[in-house]
Amino acid sequence: MNLNTSWTFVLAALICFIVSINATRDTCDRLPSPQARIWCQKLEKWHNDAKGQVKKAKVVHPPGVDLGAAGFLQPSADLGLVQTRLDECIDFKCACDFIEGAEVNGDDCILKGGQPMQKVIRREYRTLSDGERKRLYDAFWELHNSSQYHHYVGQHRHANTAAGAHAGPAFVGWHREYLKRLELSMRSTDPTLFIPYIDWTFEDALENPEDSVLFSEYLMGESPPPPAGGFGNPGINRSVGATFNGTKFRPIALENVTYLLNLNNDKFDIGFLPFPAAERGCPYLDLNNGSDIENIHGRAHLFVGGDMSDFPTSSNDPIFFMLHSFVDYLWETWRQTKQTAAQRETQYPRDDQRCSTVQHFLSANMYPFTPLNNRDGLSNNYTKFLYEYAPSPTCSDSLPLGCNSEFLFCDLSHGAPRCSSKIKPGAKCGGYTRGEEPCYRGECVGDRCVLSPDGTPRPRTTPQPTPGGTLPKTETCYNENKCCQNWAARGQCNLNPDYMRRTCPASCGSCTPTRYRLDDGMLPILEHIRRVQKQLGVDGDGRELSGELRNLLQRTTTLELMRSKIRRLTMKIVICGLLLGFARAQDPCASAPNPTMRNLCLQIQRWDGRARSSASRKTVALPPGMAGDMAVGAPKNPFAAGASMAADFAPIAANIYQCMTLTCMCSYLQGTTAPNGQCTLRNGQSLRKAYRKEYRQLSDAERQKLHEAYWSLKNSGEYDNLARTHRDADRAESAHAGPAFPMWHREFIKRFEFALRQIDPSISLPYVDWTMDAALPNSKDSVLFSSYLMGEHRGRTGCLGAPFANWRTIEGRACVMRATGMNGTLKPMEQRQIDALLADQNVITMLGFPARRNGCPYNLNFNILEFVHGQSHLFIGGDMGDTPTSSNDPIFFLHHAFVDYVWEMWRERWQSRAEREIRYPPDNQQCSSVQHFANNNMMPFTPMKNRDGLSNMYLDNLWEYAPRPTCSAGNVNGCASQFLFCDLSHGAARCVSKIKPGARCNFYQRGESPCYRGVCRNNVCVITGPAPPTPRTPSRNPPKRILPQVQENEYDFDVVVIF
């Protein structure tokens, strides 16, 4: 290198260094206030410190795990993760293991006193009762005295231990997990406790926020240090409302909060998942104006001052956790109002090192909470299982006491009414001119708050609360993965030290357990592998474990054969290695648009895996004399000339269920067939095609007959016989996970309708148009889910009530279970989904391959009919939420009648009569199991083939559909049902289910009558006049006789020729 080149290089490096220094200065200098600029500089420092930790605190993976092509961690040893402490739990079933005297009951945790552990509701700190506040103080002190508080303080202290805590989009998710852990630790002694939030806008509403009663011995303690009050501690420093260079620090302002909560979802990466430390080249750099959640939360930090003003010391102060509870409250409020459930768990800014450090990347480890990743902080499970938020107090001119706290008052003198913190004694109180009472326990005299004679006197000293419980001693040395011992034995502590020393410190010798012994016993490992094997059938790619691994597991269950310690350890290593290698298969459902659809996808994958396994053990039965080339899937075009089965022209109906004409049915119903084909039943009525109407358009008599017939089938055992047909993949392989799905269910509900018509030939199977329930703001409030129609369940997940109470399931349970509307914001099938299905003429889009495998030329499409139909299953939940149990619920058949109707609407829109019977997705084992091939037997409905489900004979001969209910502004009564109304307030007029009594109804402004048999009063449906009659309970008397299903020959060859 010559001299000129050297100087050029040095000069370029110097320029780059100067530019990097000035980049930070430019970013912070342009912010609008000194307070914002100071906080910006603190974020920049954290950002730079974290960048320096990338090499020694890098993103780490379990042994044998790589980043996938899309940058997401592939699943492997993650299936072996264990919760070793209460604060790692994300549901009560897990928490139960760590709470003394608690027991698991289903999905509930029953505490020692017999009460279930429940979600807590985090409220504004000043709305707590004295007793609640006292218990909160006790819990904080107990944590402090047990040293657990110091453990949590240490986790937040430095960028080298918690790089993703600040200066990037992982900020909110990291602190959500952090708060959850502290809260669960507190709940170990008092399960009713929660971390309240402090709404800092109540302080900012004061001319002098530092005069808030919040900073007094009555609440969070006064400063200068040491603060008094419930957290009086000489080790905490504060300087509330300090002035810096002539600028007085203030907390979070109402306009800050309003700005954030009004951001639309497309601004999620500016408001709540921002890049506050972006560098040159980052596309977000110019958007950083200090208004994002991380910057505005810094206002409260600096306002409180002292320890709170700097990251390493801020969590010393208990007020830190109430500030971050408020931050989490704002984020969750925005998520609930601006995002769908799926968006909450998937939307995250693009990884870009110009915008944040790698520790903020979506798949980066959430240090020190490994093995969590940043994406885990987006989970809906936090507020689904553990906590939710009560709204922050509000008031108005007409409701000045709405603030609901002795520490708050309604400020009417400064713009719109708003809750404000009361002012502590001795502080200034002028400026209130509309009769407010701004002083805590006193009055404003000479612009100063003075205690009233009967006010609470200031205590001489600040008493330390007496702890109310005893925290259990906890182990600090533990592994977080059940494969740790095996990895350590393979040398992974040295080969992969970053992951191993964080996840497996006990096995790597980084610490020594004091409350347990590291055990190399085989049984726990084997039990865990069996659990993982079960998970893989759901969460993996649908494959079964190899025969070799199954045999290995079976052989090693006998511990007596493994007496040698070396052999036992070797076998554990081999099994764990085989398990991890198998588990690395990519999750086929990872691209699901939301967790609900992923859950459905996993159910379909499980069905597909079992069906494929069943196929390897079975042969498809063929009539005598059929050539081998007609075996499963052989015809490339099963509809081509010559491809039909030799005996197909000859099958006869061996029982009523195989009938495809009314003439055939007539003989089984003991009717008489006239020469013109008309069937006259014994009661003189004609047997006609079924006319399937929307369930809510049935007359009271029709609905009662339907329910009576249901009970007759149940009491005879025939309902259960049919339900079992749908339960098992090895009996009904083509029912799910492939293109035969609608054909199989068409035949299935035909048979169910025939069973009903054996009870009463005038009955037709109605359909439930789910879009009329989905159109309600709260679909679970539909009158459909009441005793007047299809029944209501008790509790979050409970037994179904009348008219199907005590409906015993095929598993022997005493009742059908439902959890209607308890799956977050999930709705049943929606009109937009029906419109999308009907708008696409591609048969692959309608029928599709929901369990495709690598090599299938068709992409996984979550908009196909089978996925869309599953939305209603999961919305109802309980038995309906899982494929094997779904047919327990009487609503199953009404649901599938609607699915069949949607499919038929598509067929009639896009296909000619001839095309309806021949258009079928191609046979391809990479796309579906062979049981879905067009020419395969439709098990267990032999001798039918899947292609027979395409026949026009179903609707030509057996049933037709009444049009879906409609209305218009000129015909508001068009819905033609006492259970429906015409919604004029939400776009085009449409029929919507009425709302059941007691549910909210304040969503309609154009004169609609949305309440069933009542009116909307105070935003709630209230029955007016006499209560609507409760439908008559169906008879439990012995049912009418169902004709026996005689087993006969199913082919009508009269002559047997033997050659």
TrEMBL record:
It comes from the Eukaryota. Keywords: Copper, Disulfide bond, Metal-binding, Signal. Residues 1-23 form the signal peptide. Disulfide bonds join 477-511. It comes from Diploscapter pachys. One of its GO terms (molecular function) is metal ion binding. PROSITE patterns: SHKT (PS51670), TYROSINASE_1 (PS00497), TYROSINASE_2 (PS00498). This is ShKT domain-containing protein. The keyword ATP-binding does not apply. The keyword tRNA-binding does not apply. The lineage of its organism: Eukaryota, Metazoa, Ecdysozoa, Nematoda, Chromadorea. InterPro entries: Di-copper_centre_dom_sf, ShKT_dom, Tyrosinase/Hemocyanin, Tyrosinase_Cu-bd. Residues 477-511 form the ShKT domain.
